[in-house]
Amino acid sequence: MKTRRLLADYGMILVLVLLCAFFSAVTTSEQSPTGEAAASQVVQATLKAMPPGARVLVAASDQPGDAAFAARVERDLEAAGARVLASVTGEPRDAREALQKIQAAGSAIDVVAATRVAGGWRVLTSVASEFPSLGSPRVIMPASYRWPNFLKPENLLNIANQIAVIAIVAVGMTLVIITGGIDLSVGSLIALSAVLAAGFIRDQAGGVAASTGGMVLGCLLAILACGAVGGFSGLMITRFAIPPFIVTLAMMLVGSGLAYILARGQSIYQIPDAFVWLGRGADLLGLPNAVVLMLVLYALAHVLMSRMKLGRYLYAVGGNAEAARLSGVPVRRVLLFAYVASGLLAGVGGVVMASQLKSGSPTYGNMYELYVIAAVVVGGTSLSGGEGRMLGTLTGAFTIAVIQNGMNLTNVESYTQKVVLGSVILAAVLLDRLRQGRGIR
Amino acid sequence: MSLSSPPVSPSSPNPRNSTNRPLLSLSGIEKSFPGVRTLRGVDLRLEAGEILAVLGENGAGKSTLMKIIGGAEAADAGTLAIDGMARVVRSPQEARAAGVAVIHQEFHLIPALTAVENIFLGQEETSGGFLARRREREQASALFQRMGVDVDLDVPCRLLSTAQQQLVEIAKALIHRARILVMDEPTAALTSHEVEKLFVLMRELRAQGLGILYISHRLEEVFTIADRVTILRDGVPVCDRSIGAITRDEMIERMVGRPLDQEFPSRRVTRGGPRLEVLGLRRGTAVRDVSFRAHRGEILALTGLVGAGRTETVRLVFGADPKDAGEIRLDGRVLDIRSPRDAIDAGIGLLTEDRKLQGLVLRHSIRENFGLPNLRRWCRRGVVQHGRERSELDRCIAALRIRLADPEMRVGHLSGGNQQKVVLAKWLAHDCEVLIFDEPTRGIDVGAKHEIYLLMNELVAVGKSIVVISSELPEVLGMADRILVMHGGRITGEITDVARATQEQILRLAHA
């Protein structure tokens, strides 16, 4: 019973782990360190192999991080007493020129300290035969190892950053779906929020020269405006008993239209560089700020749903609204809260997206409501209301992100990706259904 | 796993089989669910032209037995024979093909379809691929005529009364040529007049050679309608007698397994001053000018026919529906009740008539349901104090003698009696001053009923006021200190001397 319960609660996490393992297996390949890490490895190997005063040629190609490699190797070797005859960053042709110069100067070379790529250049491996007067230098390169591309830290952060917007919006969607409703307007609200924030910064806060205060104000106003739209939907649903599907479908069109009108159909990009702090900056333990924000929101929502009175009310309203009302639950207020929260969080998602892309455009968030709903449903929340968990939604969002990312890494084309993603969503819900069929909540 | 004998093709059934082959016979039926053995070797026999009452407490295995007969569940062991021939019924469809129709307590009608469409659902009359609507309508109309009842054939079923919907269900069974009719609590939602009419129809069907299995908690009705009675206790038949050979007290003893000292426990409470006062309450045509008082330490019964406005009245008091006019006072203070929340804050609790639809969130746990009206008091800055919730729950579970394995289990998995106790626990924990019980013992077995009566006595003993709505007149006469009778949205009579009141007296007032 206990293990079954665990499996039921954390089954989706297991699926996520298995997916990660799968993509790790298929993306494993030869890796070598680059940049500074590679540099210190090469420096150490050089100093170990050669006496002080050794004559060194530093060679690096023109890939990202290579210039840093060359500079670091040169500096550290010089400091340790070696003589760096030349430092090359570029193509084999540049290396040949350097060798010719050294030959002309009548010197010999003891060591070629190279990156993985440069170390494979023919001109460097055959110095002994082509430039006999230079001696037969040893080529020292960083050691290679096997590691999955999927599990590289930058890829994992990339996944988290990619899914942050959807995951943040999915918090609100989970609240709404637990009450037995649905909010189709979130995709449009993402666009509206991005356009409002960017537009405010451009028109009211001084555009590219906007201050931090101006940017924060713009973002807050955009988020509050989205909360107001959510509140309007909530009022329509609670006061006039219009089905949430219809109300939010209408607000989806209204919101999208408003975003286009406000932006005049254009993208708004007159924004200071500092605006990308939220979307691209990383201040805490190397985690992107958007990801930190997402985690904080999930932690708060989890406490709300599992510990707070309001959370219990949300579940009760979704489970049986009439029984809840007759038990003294303020059903209308609870529903209103869910839709306002969903609007606010869609607004937050829009601001994060604007920050990531450093612009606001009415095309943002297109179809996002469907991905958000998919994340919630894959996370095990029942569309009939009354059941579901915040952490399930987070798992669901990551499952979707991991599948997309993994398929990108393995070069699955985008049309096929859609087919796979759709099938996975269906399979996840089917799995959930089977588990419920055995009578586990 | 299935019934042991080989399947026999559904050959032409032999109607009016009056030889010594019973119409339906079960022998040695066993059924277990994870952790529970529900049926432990049940033998049962139903003759053609007989009404057999099946009695037992909740949890005795009646509903499981009905499910096996109706094909919704498969037995673990045992045989089921129709006309003396062993059958395997693996699905409701196969049961229906074998001539068995089950009429559940909750009707299985499509609310938006008319009576005719519902009756023919699944075996529509067609000609050339098109629905033969006129032929269907004629057949249905002829059938209702034969049944001697009048049902509007052309309105959606949701607009029909409960009694009429039930007639549609019966008609559907007859159209499918059912010869065995299983009726689960068919009178639970009917007025006494409608019950009379149903009994006339059941006798007519019996005369036509149908066998009827009739499940009820209402013992009076069993004596009126049944020919024979089988009593189940803990999954075993403990008694099978013809109706003339058993008394009411014997029946109860057999069901409960011990002699019951007193069906309605006595109490000794002195009535205090007025507590809840209702003046000139109105809402549309359902409630027209209702005024009454409930006193401290008193059980006040509100009775009348279904549709008399009893439930509607208490819903207004509780704020579940908006009132057109009227004043509600508690201890002399005028209350401004606009929602159930206001009523609860003032100390009024309502135990709703329909616990599944209005009283409980069935998919949620006992603990979560229990907490719902009380969370506000167990919260600090919006955070629920789980320890406090748990200790209150444990206290109430013990006080109410709720039998359960785990407070985290879904309330929907409990028996009816225990579900009702969970609803009671919600309000007990809230310590309401006025408790309104709307049909508190409907669909509950004798033992659980008794416990609820005891609890009502304990509550009035500590000075609470109870307003109880009940259609069961013996219960009203046995439990109330004072009786108000309603008819047509008005109070048509008050009986203060309950000890000398009779059912006839109440009925006269109810038909006023």
SSE layout:
The complex is a heterodimer of chains A (441) and B (512).
Chain A: H1 2-26, E1 28-31, H2 35-49, E2 55-60, H3 66-79, E3 83-89, H4 92-105, E4 111-114, H5 122-125, H6 127-130, E5 138-140, E6 145-148, H7 153-178, H8 186-203, H9 212-240, H10 244-263, H11 277-280, H12 289-307, H13 309-319, H14 321-326, H15 331-357, H16 368-378, H17 390-409, H18 414-437
Parallel strand pairs in A: 2-3, 2-4, 4-5
Antiparallel strand pairs in A: 1-6
Chain B: E1 24-33, E2 36-46, E3 50-55, H1 62-70, E4 77-82, E5 85-87, H2 92-97, E6 100-103, H3 115-119, E7 126-127, E8 130-131, H4 133-147, H5 162-175, E9 180-184, H6 192-207, E10 211-215, H7 219-225, E11 228-233, E12 236-242, H8 248-256, E13 274-283, E14 287-295, E15 299-304, H9 310-318, E16 325-330, E17 333-335, H10 340-346, E18 348-351, H11 355-359, H12 366-371, E19 379-380, E20 383-384, H13 386-400, H14 416-430, E21 434-438, H15 446-461, E22 465-469, H16 473-479, E23 482-487, E24 490-495, H17 503-510
Parallel strand pairs in B: 3-10, 3-11, 6-9, 9-10, 15-22, 15-23, 18-21, 21-22
Antiparallel strand pairs in B: 1-2, 1-4, 4-5, 7-8, 11-12, 13-14, 13-16, 16-17, 19-20, 23-24
Helix pairs in contact in B: 4-5, 13-14
Overall geometric form of chain A: elongated
Structure annotation, total helices of chain B: 17
Structural class category of chain B: alpha/beta
| Largest sheet properties of chain A | 4 strands, parallel
Q: What is the topology, as strand order, of the major beta sheet of chain A?
A: 3-2-4-5
- Report the mean per-residue pLDDT of chain B as an integer: 84
Instruction: Give, in order, the helices and strands of chain A.
Output: HEHEHEHEHHEEHHHHHHHHHHHH
Mean pLDDT of chain A: 86
- Judging from the principal axes of the Cα atoms, what is the shape of chain B? globular
- Percent of residues of chain B in helical segments? 25-40%
What separation lies between the terminal Cα atoms of chain A?
12 Å
Low-confidence stretches of chain A: none
Largest beta sheet of chain B: what is the strand line-up?
Answer: 6-9-10-3-11-12
